[in-house]
Specification:
The protein is mainly alpha-helical. The chain is built from 11 helices and no strands. The protein binds a DNA duplex (21 and 21 nucleotides) through α3 and α6.
DNA sequence: AAAAACATCAACCGCGCAATT
DNA sequence: AAATTGCGCGGTTGATGTTTT
């Protein structure tokens, strides 16, 4: 509580003098959302620093931009990160590191902020719990050769149970045994880099066009269903409705599967122990 | 039932690069 | 050529909700 409030920090761009130098911070209200939404509907994106001037909003350009990108923008998706998405985040992060916006480009509707949050609240947290450095080779290898294949299994299981059982396609990246049992085949590098995700694609409908670092574009299953409606004439309220829709859909099947269960973590732990 | 500890996520900040003046 | 402004990124914080004690 020590800092914050007032504070201009950034340059005094707006206003010559102090006509209204009070800048609103914190959560956005529905009214503000509505004003911003209308402004962008008319003027388009960009020119963020003009928003306050035109609309009377007492927000910085930065704040407006962020609100638009992370919340108001049509088709933005929040919450219930699917297994496929989780897998993708892990995969892309393994090659690009903390390049959140770049990673986000490959996850339709997801924002860099959300991906970053996911990484910090799940992956980093997990590493900590295992007393690992997230960036250590040990941890990263384990993610890649143990965790991700395991995720893939889940995805495949999901896919075959939800659709009808088709393709058995148990890929060769299958390091399995009972949770926490011993005996785990260390699943060494049967998947070299681009290997196993593209393999997944056939089974799971994750279309990755050869995941070479250039441009991998995936289309996630289920993705189509949510992005279709809304968009045009919506104010904040419409938004909430839409979101509830998401949660419901996601909750009933595809999304929100939590990989970070005790069982799985236990398994991870085992692997780490082995490797060391 | 209340408090404390923890988890999540929206929003802020500073920095650096690019475009404009 | 230098200064100013705009923008986007990545790291971090804090309010709120949830779980544990």
């Amino acid at each position: 509580m020590e800092r914050s409030l007032a504070e201009n920090g950034s340059s005094g761009t707006y206003g010559s003098s102090e006509e209204e130098m009070s800048i609103t911070k914190g959560p956005w209200t529905e009214e503000e959302d509505s004003v911003l939404f209308d402004y962008i509907t008319v003027h388009g994106e960009g020119h963020w620093n003009s928003v306050a001037r035109y609309t009377g909003l007492k927000r910085t350009g930065k704040s407006c931009r962020l609100r638009w990108l992370n919340y108001l923008r049509p088709n933005v998706r929040r919450g219930n990160i699917t297994l496929q998405e989780q897998l993708m985040i892990l995969d892309l992060h393994s090659r690009w590191g903390n390049r959140w916006s770049k990673i986000a480009e490959h996850l339709p509707g997801r924002t860099d902020n959300e991906i970053k949050n996911y990484w910090r609240t799940r992956v980093v947290k997990q590493a900590k719990q295992l007393k690992c450095d997230v960036n250590s080779k040990q941890f990263r290898d384990t993610l890649r050769f143990v965790w991700m294949p395991r995720m893939l299994e889940r995805i495949q299981a999901q896919a075959s149970s939800s659709a009808q059982a088709q393709t058995t396609l148990v890929s060769n990246v299958q390091a399995h045994s009972d949770p926490c049992g011993g005996a785990t085949a260390t699943a060494t590098a049967s998947a070299s880099d681009a290997g196993f995700l593209s393999e997944a694609s056939s089974a799971v409908d994750v279309h990755a066009h050869s995941l070479s670092d250039s441009g991998a574009s995936y289309s996630l299953m289920g993705g189509g269903s949510w992005c279709s409606h809304g968009a045009e004439e919506g104010y904040g309220r419409v938004w909430e409705e839409r979101n509830n829709g998401y949660s419901e859909i996601a909750g009933s099947g595809f999304g929100g599967v939590d990989m970070w269960t005790e069982e799985n973590i236990c398994f991870l732990q085992q692997q780490l122990a082995d490797d060391f």
